[in-house]
Design goal:
37% helix; 119 residues; Rossmann fold; 4 helices; 21% strand
Length: 119
């Protein structure tokens, strides 16, 4: 079973993504901010990280940069409220594998994750 970490300061977004992906057989864990996400990444392996860019405790770009260093090869997906918020690459030397603009549909998140993490 593929393991995914969703990082967003909004509980409603985390719950939405968790339910959408868990219903397709993914093991999904949540983190409410960057510090919590990095602690989870340091403690265990994940196949993908889905991370919001704007969070109060730590910018998503910083989380993604540190996550890429901790877990090379892990798929990185950015979620944000505006396409103009997404730099290319997302962090110095780090390019996201996918990006979703809020509000996104359940089908969009399922399709993107399935394309990056085939069974």
């Amino acid at each position: 079973m593929k393991k995914i970490l969703i990082v967003d300061d909004e509980a409603v977004v985390r719950n939405y993504v968790r339910r959408a992906l868990a219903s397709r057989g993914f093991d999904v864990e949540e983190a409410a901010g960057g510090g919590e996400a990095l602690a989870k990444l340091a403690a265990g392996a994940y196949d993908a990280l889905i991370c919001d860019l704007k969070m109060p405790d730590m910018r998503g770009e910083e989380v993604i940069k540190k996550a890429a260093a901790l877990r090379p090869g892990m798929k990185l997906i950015v979620i944000t409220g505006s396409v103009s918020d997404v730099p290319d690459p997302v962090a110095p030397g780090v390019k996201a594998d996918g990006c979703l603009i809020k509000p996104f549909g359940i089908g969009e998140i399922r399709d993107l994750v399935a394309s990056l993490l085939p069974a």
